[in-house]
Amino acid sequence: MSGSPLKVAVAGSGMIANKAHIPAFKCMGEDRARVAAVFDTREEAARDTAERHGIPAWYTDAGEMLAKVKPDLVSVCSPNASHRAMAEMALNSGAHVLCEKPMALTYADTKSLFDLAQSKGLHIAACQAQRYRGEFAAARELADAGVFGDIYYGEISLIRRRGIPKWGTFHLKESNGGGAFCDLGVHMVDALLWIMGNPAFESISGMSASRLARRDEEIGLVTNLAESGTPSGVENARPYSPAEFEVEEFAAGSLRVAGAIINFRISWALNLPPDFHVSFSGERAGARLPEMEIYSTLGRYQSDVRPKIYRNGRYEEREFSGHYYLVDDFLNFLSGNGPMPVKPEETLNVAAVIDAFYISARECREVRAAEIRG
Asked: Are 123 and 96 in contact (CB under 8 A)?
């Protein structure tokens, strides 16, 4: 597909479309991609997004947009529960798809999208932008070089003390499917499994809780948008009501993959200090990210090493810089100038984890891969 710019349509005009996807595509230059249209079920949101970014057309009907615009690529930024349907419509219209995470809420639905794309000679990729953090990419490079040896233990922690998204429909089960785990946990699980070389999911035992969302609103707790993941704010936010809150604000548990166990804790709201880290231990060395501290031995002595990771990439100063790198890589892939940035087998592995976690949390039991993959 080299030689002419791709015509891009954006499905959904919420925060991630306005702050990440649309700016990233526009940054690539019109010789590579041109955002031709945007869709949202809310007329005000679609119109304002188009005007804000100079997009020629906006729609409140996705089917109409696909029929009239005939995009080469659709960027799916709609609520989680609509990802599968939107991606399916785009693929059936003949477009490639870049889809926000999670691509779908179950393993079976995720696999059906890859099968559909393959049957039509098209490509679909999930937006797993955490991989583009410099420390995470360096850890993957070192893991591939054998620095850590076989990794057999890992920990994931992403704690927002008070960071419930109060825009959009993150808090509604019908729209989002789940809460903190499918919003934040999906990124962290993907990042660590990617560093480890994508070991196969085997089983999970998890729990979820929603104890603080409504209570905090009752006492008028002071919070801010930056803590909930949007430092520069949002436009055209849907009114938020804590009375509607019906997903998990906290998730924790243990995940088994081939040869390793990973403990995780993920929150939008928790009475503990904020935390963001991925750590893991192998037979030769371990590491803690994003500090990029490596724990190993030197001769007869224990040794801690802290490599310098320079943030010299061209998009480092951008908000949501990972999306810029991902869009760049996906466009390169579609033009035949690079590899697929997020491979189907990696996305399917994470999809199985998400699917199994929600069953485990709901039924209070361990869920094994065979139940998900069949």
From this structure: yes
